Amino acid sequence: MSEADYTDWGVVSSGEGGGRIASTFLSREESPGIGERVTLLNTNRSDMVNLMEDADILEEYGEHITIFGPRRGVGNDFAKGERMAEEHFEEIYNAVTERMVGADALLHVTTLGGGTGNGSIPYLIEQLSTGSNVEGTRPEWVESAVNMAFAAWPYEHEPSQQQFNAVMGLSRLLMRRDVTQNADAVLLASNTHIENEDLSTDQYDAVNERIVTAIDLLIGAGRNAERIIDAEDYIAQPSNIGVYHFTPGVATDLHYDMLDYEIMFDRAAEQSFVPMDASTSRAAFAVVRAPAHLVESGEVTKSGVENAFGRWKRDKGISSAKGLSTVTLKPGRGNNVDVLLLLGGFDLNPLLDQSWPEYEETKRQFEQARKLQNDSETAISMNEIEQLEENLTRYLEVNGSGR
After folding, report:
1. What pTM was computed for the model?
2. 118 within 8 A of 42, measured Cβ to Cβ
3. What would the 3-class secondary structure string for 232-271 be?
4. Which CATH number is 265's domain given?
5. Cα separation of 74 and 69, whole Å?
């Protein structure tokens, strides 16, 4: 299979949190599958200056950055962030399509606690998918591209407004206002759940490093693999049963000579990026990344991984879960392997429980403000809050026990 046959990915971020993750790919010497197809969107230029750390880096990667809207940010007002994206959509659309040209799949990265990314990314995905606010004909590659989202849930200690934003953001990533599916797949990561306990490491850097590792494994399954798992595979069968939310579970540097595959899968599941029970999953993919010499010698094989993954799923009671498994290559002569589990359709309530009380309290405060007629130009209406909550509840009725 030639390089030209592999899936071309593009990474689109919006907001400071998403920009921190996406900028990692720009700072590398090489990002296979992505290259320089990276676009950083923001409403606050100072955030991008801080992100790039110094003027030289900002100048080097300046062409990847697009500042839209007020340039001083939108605070934590996701409704304003969405409105800015709508009002400045032509600018955003041109930046994304020029930088992403030819991409087969777009990974949209954002944090769900803020205003810019949480406001703009669900809107951007909808527009790229439907073209309802696009003047003229969308390029063929835009019409056919897969739109996946990687969304980070706020820390438990963050204020109630951020928790409210997260619930509203998840609803909008999953479903449009007309109750149709929005993103082709939504990958979720809870900052609190995956943060590194090593206090010598910046908490955001540690979390972002794990997220980037998961993205590498996800994309790598479509390259240099014994069985290609491509972007379409992640969405085709799961979406047929109404599943399009996922979370990665990643375990790295596992010693092949000491652990069997089922234990490796357990290790990855134990390190899922959100609180969840693997036995509630209705979709499951497994990627084992092994040194090339182990694969070439026949010690690590596609059939061996596939059989073990089948046994692992049966042990978890999810033998009917949709998904595939594969083996990918990594350089080096050691015997350590990395494992990615991508689990989907699981009960979302353990994640939502982290934020739901704060969501309800913030909603109550919005309602009180309306009674006082304390409306702002960008404030979300109670009717819209109720609609977005209803849409999320509708999705949960299929993927979990509801609320």
Report:
1. 0.93
2. no
3. HHHHHHHHHCCCCEEEEEEEEEEECCCCCHHHHHHHHHHC
4. 3.30.1330.20
5. 9
Residue 152 near residue 191 (C-beta atoms within 8 A):
yes
The values of phi and psi at residue 41, to 5°, are: -110, 145
Q: Quick one: how far is CA 386 from the chain centroid?
A: 25
How many angstroms separate the CA atoms of 7 and 220, rounded? 10
CATH of the domain at 108: 3.40.50.1440
Give me 133's structure tokens: 């606010």
Q: Which domain holds residue 59?
A: 8-183
Q: What is the pLDDT of residues 2-53, one digit of tens each?
A: 455 688 999 999 998 999 899 889 888 788 899 989 999 999 877 776 666 6
Paired tokens of 102: 């030819």
Cβ partners under 8 Å of residue 89, min gap 6: 123, 127, 133
Asked if residue 174 and residue 253 are part of one domain, the reply reads no
Q: Look at the block and give the residue holding tokens 């951020």.
A: 162
What's the pLDDT tens digit per position in 234-262?
Answer: 999 999 999 999 999 999 999 988 889 99
For the beta sheet containing 146-153, the strands, ordered from the edge strand earlier in sequence to the opposite edge, are 65-67, 38-42, 9-14, 105-111, 146-153, 185-190, 245-255, 336-344, 283-291, 325-330
* Nearest residue to 278 via CA among 336, 229, 343, 326: 343
Instruction: Please tell me what DSSP assigns to residue 278.
Output: G
Check whether residue 255 and residue 178 sit in a common domain: no
282 in the same domain as 136: no
**Alpha carbons within 13 A on the beta-carbon side of 186:** 30
Q: d(Cα 267, Cα 261) in Å, to the nearest integer?
A: 10
Contact (CB, 8 A) for 162 and 76:
yes
The answer on pLDDT for 375 being more than 70 is no
Contact 116, 14 (CB under 8 A): yes
